[in-house]
Amino acid sequence: MNKDPFIIILLALTMILYPSCQNSPTISDVDEIIVEYDPSPYELNTAPLPPPEIPADNALTVQGVKLGRMLFYDPILSKNEAQSCASCHVQADGFSDINRFSTGVDGLEGGRQAMSIFNLGYNPNGFFWDGRAETLREQSLLPIQDPLEMHETLDNVVDKLRAEQDYTDQFIRTFGEDEITTEKVSLALEQFMYSIISNDSKHDQYLAGDITLTPSEERGRNLFFAPFDPDNPETSGGNCLICHGGPNFGSNLFRNNGLDSDQEFTDLGRFEVTGNAGDRAKFRVTSLRNIAVNPPYMHDGRFESLEEVVQHYNTGIKPSNTLDLFLSSTVPTGLMMDEQDISDLVAFLHTLTDDTFLNNEAYTNPF
């Protein structure tokens, strides 16, 4: 019996194509094939701020920042997988915690207020309030192990990450191999935290000539930058830039800002790191950018409002052996600010809020 030539051709094509269909890669196979090292640099836009100091051995890459962002938001780093770095460093609050003291996985409170995370490339003189971590990569691992915070071991963190294919793939894209180590975790977290930039506050826009300040904000600006002059109260200012200078409104110094007298010290700050008596009760001078969105204030969160903070510098400085020299010079008269002065200075501090930074999707939870 003759067979239809069309059927014969169809059967032949089926036999040819069948093996290739059987061996075609699955979606997961395709994903595995395309996972490869990607060193594409991450573009860090800091203008009008100067370029920050980024470690030469950990240049920011697109994939490295992405991995660090994943780790920053993933509670897998904590003992009970219920708390992440972002739990105590909330973007809307300037990557800080509006609670006086953060609560860890075991329900225990820390002893100091959570510091803000942004513009860390302008902070080369150690991290934490007392500067005990010399590098950001070192800093990134300490909260993971701290019993008051995430209370996890680094070995357990690595084991948990190795069990997740998404992380294995991302470590390949970042470092060129799927081996996950504690060091690589710290380098990725360092990259993400260095990528967090605040440079578009109302004050930045004012300096660029794009907007004008209100009369109260402008007067507060003058008070912020004007020198302290006890002989001329009418023109005297707060000279705030002595401690909070430069485009980041901070410094790399540790200072005693007169919160307590020698007899009242309960936290010795920088002294606990250096053992130098001259460092007793000295703490890092933080940036004032976004200060209005991250109360409470000071290393122990004792002040709930900016008005309280300004009033402290106005009339509340307590003498001690390690008190900052400039602040010591203001003790006899105070800063001589009245209620209007305080209100205007606080109005200026609000112009340092950066809504672009607070809502930047590049810093949000990637999951």
Radius of gyration: 27 Å
Number of helices: 15
Model regions low in confidence, pLDDT < 50 over at least 5 residues = 5-31
Q: Strand order across the biggest sheet?
A: 1-2
Structure report:
Helix content is 38%, strand content 1%. The protein is globular, with a radius of gyration of 27 Å. The protein has 15 helices and 2 strands. The protein has helices at residues 5-23, 27-34, 62-73, 85-88, 136-145, 154-162, 165-175, 182-195, 202-207, 215-225, 271-274, 306-315, 325-330, 339-350, 355-358, and strands at residues 254-255, 283-284. The chain has 2 domains: 56-198, Cytochrome Bc1 Complex, Chain D, domain 2 (Orthogonal Bundle); 202-351, Cytochrome Bc1 Complex, Chain D, domain 2 (Orthogonal Bundle), CATH 1.10.760. With 367 residues, it is mainly alpha-helical. The longest helix is centred in the N-terminal third of the chain and has 19 residues, at 5-23. It has a two-stranded antiparallel sheet with strand order 1-2. Residues 5-31 have low confidence and may be disordered.
Task: Give short descriptive properties of this protein.
two-stranded antiparallel sheet, Cytochrome Bc1 Complex, Chain D, domain 2, 2 domains, globular, mainly alpha, 38% helix, 367 residues
What is the topology?
Elements: H1 5-23, H2 27-34, H3 62-73, H4 85-88, H5 136-145, H6 154-162, H7 165-175, H8 182-195, H9 202-207, H10 215-225, E1 254-255, H11 271-274, E2 283-284, H12 306-315, H13 325-330, H14 339-350, H15 355-358
Antiparallel strand pairs: 1-2
Helix pairs in contact: 3-7, 3-8, 5-8, 10-14, 12-14
